Amino acid sequence: MPLLDTSVEPPNLFPTGFPIRQSLLVLLNILPEVMIHHMLVPLFPFMTMTLMSRSDDIAGVSAAKSNYAYYAGLLQSAYFFPSIFMTVVWGCISDRAGRKPVLLCGVVGYGLGAMLLGMSTDYGVAMLALIVCGLFAANAAVAKCMMGELSLTDEARAFGYSVYGVAYGAAGIVGSALGGLLGDPALFAGSSFLQQRPYFAACALGVVLAVAAASSNCLFLKETINATWTYDSAVPSTQEALQRRPASSSLVVFDGDAASENGLGCSCKSHGRVQLPIPTPIPVPVPTAVPGGNGCRSLKNTIKFVVLRLIRVARRLSMVIGSLLASRPGAIVGPTVPVILYATYALCNSIYGTSLPVLIAAAPHQGGFGLGPREAGVAMTTLGIAKLCAKLFFYPLQRRFGTLSVYQIGCALLVPAALIPPLFGSSSLWPSLLVSAVLIGIGEGLLYVSAIVMVTHFARPEHLGAVHGVAGCLVSLARTLGPYVAGLAWQRSALSGQTWIVFTLVSLSAFAGLVLVRKIDTKASDAGTTDTKAFDI
After folding, report:
1. Which of 132, 130, 126, 122 is nearest to 58 (CA)?
2. pLDDT in tens, 207-248
3. What are the CA-CA distances from residue 358 to residues 66, 94, 385 (Å)?
4. Given CB 3.0 to 4.6 Å as the disulfide criterion, which of 73, 234, 260, 473 pairs with 253?
């Protein structure tokens, strides 16, 4: 008799329907964007000081060097401003042309922008380079769509987004640490080129990552739009799973007592809390193009062709807006509230991410701590580590408490944690910085993953890319306004010695998210849910 019973299969480390290799390739395509941005976050105040010291009188920059916090915020806003428009554009393009080519365009364009930034010695050129990066900074939104499409069960989707968040957080940790180290002036001794461009090393590393990501995209990454390949013989492909869906709305049971069909031919466990029907995608007639004869169109046919194209775009936009504003039958809300909650997280993240490095870099007479890039990198790395730990534990927390409860926990942590450095930093510098960074990191990690899970869940399948594009648009708007508002508020509050005012904006934004997420619980109660304490998505 054998010592081990070989008939018992070992437990799976990953949920059914989760493709490991393809998921890793998707994550590799967002690595340049995440790494470059996080390397630059602790360097923005010091980068601004260097650029302003070498720039001519651009909009009064050289005459107002004490306002570097304001111009550091402008640099970050210049990066996020194009994303307000381009994220939704890239999302819609990915719905039509596929996720893979859009990811490839993103890494190539982002790499070119990083190269231009690394070579710049002028404030205006640096702002232009960041705008170029922002034009192609949509890979994160497209990758979220791809991760959702790769996962064939709700359990695999929650796990996949948890892995996405962990990878994003790990890249942020490494990026923040490398940004502080590569921006240390001690490394540039004896090199006039690097002394004039203390951010070149970070940008050069980002370009290398972009080349590696583009190569993996071309060679190994598979398309998920109209995909026919399968992950496992027991798991249907995406196309087969959609074909199995009944003509009527199929039922997804989240967190209940028994296993039930989720509409994709797979089963998942639930505890009887919420039952959400997923509507069958409604086919919308699309006008066809009017071909011209022998490669030439008459004026009449050309006008008709343009009108039909405009109608096609208008119908597409109306479908997306309708899915955002209209609630699904039996569901709690459409994706509108989750998208707003996602933007709320982004606003908190951008304001705190701008204010903390400025607080560290500012001179004591300006209300700061007077530290260098290395210390700023340590604080941001600590925040990244805490955020990574929160994303690691999101999956079990989400299964235990539900997504909305996890979001509430994140908001509750941000409200007091943002005020710790300005209030207690003068007496306890490093304890206040580290405690605040840890609490903020945990809160942001929980908010981030729970927000993208909610956005993906409430979006119609045929509008998934467009809804994530709209979400990315609002997130980019929040991240454009956040650094600008933070820099402006810092300059005004530093004059009066009340630097805690800018950090109050983080607490107020988190409190607003805490209030807004409760609206979903109220809707759940109205829908006949017996348990409004937690809502599992």
Report:
1. 122
2. 999 999 999 999 988 888 765 444 343 344 434 443 434 343
3. 12, 37, 20
4. 260
Helix or strand run (H / E) with residue 163: helix 154-182
Can you give 392-460 as a three-state secondary structure string?
Answer: HCHHHHHHHHCHHHHHHHHHHHHHHHCCHHHHHCCCCHHHHHHHHHHHHHHHHHHHHHHHHHHHHHHCC
Unique residue bearing structure tokens 């409760």? 518
Centre a 10 Å sphere on the Cβ of residue 212 and count the other Cβ atoms it contains: 15
Which CATH number does the domain housing residue 47 bear?
1.20.1250.20
Instruction: Count other Cβ atoms within 10 Å, centred on residue 271.
Output: 16
List the end-to-end C-alpha distance of the chain, in Å, as a whole number: 46
244 falls within a domain: no
**Gap between the Cα atoms of 170 and 176, Å rounded:** 10
Q: Report the DSSP beta bridge partners of residue 261.
A: 267
Find out whether 383 and 441 touch, Cβ atoms under 8 Å. yes
CA-CA distance, 157 to 161, in Å (whole number)?
6
Write down the H helix ranges in 4-138: 20-28, 31-40, 44-54, 68-80, 83-97, 99-119, 123-135
Domain count, the chain: 1
Angstrom distance (rounded) from CA 200 to CA 518: 45
Question: Can you give the residue range of the structural domain that contains 60?
Answer: 20-225+332-526
Residue 18 makes CB contacts below 8 A (sequence gap 6+) with 150, 151, 156, 159, 160, 231
Q: Answer whether residue 175 is part of any domain.
A: yes
Q: Are 472 and 141 in contact (CB under 8 A)?
A: yes
Q: Given this model, what pLDDT does residue 116 score? A: 93
Residue 291 included in any domain? no
DSSP 42: G
CA–CA gap between residue 352 and residue 495 (Å, rounded): 20
Q: Residue range 188-208: average pLDDT?
A: 83
Q: Which helix (H) or strand (E) holds 300?
A: helix 299-325
The Cα 206–Cα 33 span in angstroms is 8
